[in-house]
Amino acid sequence: MLGGGQSPLGESFNEEGDGIIFFQGCTDFGNRFPTIRKFTTKPTRFAKRGDILLSVRAPVGTINIANEDCCIGRGLAALNSKDNCIAYLFGVMENLKQVFDRRNVSGTTFGSITKDDLFSLQVVKPEKQILTLYNNTITPAFEMQNKIESENQTLSKLRDWLLPMLMNGQITVN
What we know:
The chain is of the alpha+beta class. It has a single domain (2-167), classed as Alpha-Beta Complex (Adenine-n6-DNA-methyltransferase TaqI, Chain A, domain 2), CATH 3.90.220. It has helices at residues 86-105, 115-120, 128-167; strands at 2-4, 13-14, 20-23, 38-40, 46-47, 52-55, 63-65, 70-72, 76-79. The strands form 2 sheets. The chain has a 5-stranded mixed beta sheet, with no helix packed on it. The protein has a 4-stranded antiparallel beta sheet with strand order 1-9-6-7, with helices on one face. Strand 6 (52-55) and strand 7 (63-65) form a beta hairpin. The N and C termini lie far apart (53 Å).
């Protein structure tokens, strides 16, 4: 499934945590999960926790995973798996990112990609039995990668909070 974003009205944006998390585009993307910067009180399009967020405007093809339910802007699309095989879909999207990158290098720049453009790309979809077997094998490693990245984000926030206090002498380490 693919759901494209539609940006809420600008006056609904805030950084105080009022409303629902809002991601406009890939500028919010981290290594695996987006960084929360903005919120909106008038959400228009949604992504659910675990959906793959795809950048549909330059640079096209960059992906992250929604680690919380959120609102997405017009620069993003939310993808999920009808077969509940998100780890396989994530791998497919990583491969497509390489395709987009190669096209960008060769001079065929994508300013944006539509749902029809994305669905026109040829992708191998294994039989259900093979897809299930693959997913059962890969999912533990995929979930471990998600857990490690989530812990890294938490540690980065802690570092960013503690470091200024260490530098100005508010706290010390014995």
